[in-house]
Design brief:
The chain has about 260 residues and is of the alpha/beta class. The chain contains ten helices and eight strands. Helix content is about 45%, strand content about 15%.
């Protein structure tokens, strides 16, 4: 089975940037091919990785719903969607990408979650590692979309709000008995880790801190210009930190 790493946190916490830099770092370390999954309806990971995706799972689902005659006779809609997903995975150097996208038409959004989960379980077997960029908030965790993951990175600022976010995610994992191997905190953006009472409060969660990502002007400028983070120079502060995360996970024998 591949190594599955999920990234969770509130919107604006830097989840997508971390997911993109993790993908790059794993590929550069030789742990490839990697499957990058954008499970956020507000899909940003393709842009961060410079990948053009022809169709999202949501778009495929809408096309099948609007044109049921497109489904071959004797084939279920679910099985046909699985085939379309397999054909439309975006391929890049060292990694492939699958994007969930939005559901525009009527119907329960849970259906897309189920399609994503089922296909992730099946497709993941073809890869050395899977990186999952979750939707802002906790929806994918609570709906068990991730299935089982070996590593869950909770991205949050070193603030009271970040503390509350980390605590809520931890509570959902425990309450639903989700299959999560190891939890880590990642502070972002963070030039200085929390201190005093706030540091104590984070410590009481019992979640080890993998590290802190500093505010990197290069990442900010690439975001503004729409450039792929794969083009970041090797001296990028954020890239170096994420590379150190990968080394730390390897030292802990989690890779």
């Amino acid at each position: 089975m591949p190594l599955r790493i999920a990234v969770a946190g509130k919107g604006g916490s830097g989840k997508t940037t971390l997911a993109a830099l993790l993908c790059r770092s794993l590929v550069e370390r030789g742990l490839k091919p990697v499957l990058a999954i954008d499970a956020d309806p507000n899909s940003c990971l393709p842009g961060r990785l410079g990948v053009t995706v022809r169709q999202t799972i949501g778009q495929m689902r809408e096309e099948v719903r609007d044109d049921p005659e497109s489904v071959p006779q004797g084939v279920s809609k679910h099985a046909w969607l699985e085939q379309l997903i397999q054909e439309d995975i975006a391929e890049a150097s060292g990694f492939d990408m699958l994007v969930m996208g939005r559901q525009e038409g009527p119907g329960c959004y849970c259906y897309l979650n189920n399609i994503l989960r089922d296909n992730m379980d099946r497709l993941a077997k073809q890869y050395r590692a899977v990186i999952i960029d979750n939707e802002a908030g906790l929806e994918h965790l609570s709906r068990r979309t991730n299935g089982g993951v070996e590593i869950l990175l909770i991205v949050c600022p070193p603030t009271q709000t970040g503390l509350q976010t980390a605590g809520r995610i931890q509570a959902i994992i425990r309450g639903l008995r989700l299959e999560v191997g190891t939890l880590f905190l990642v502070f972002n953006p963070c030039d200085q880790p929390p201190a005093g009472e706030l540091a104590e409060a984070f410590g009481q969660l019992g979640i080890p801190v993998l590290g802190a990502i500093p505010l990197d002007p290069l990442v900010a400028s690439y975001d503004v210009s729409g450039k792929s983070l794969l083009q970041l120079p090797d001296d990028s502060q954020a890239l170096r930190v994420v590379q150190s995360f990968v080394e730390s996970l390897a030292e802990r024998k989690l890779l």
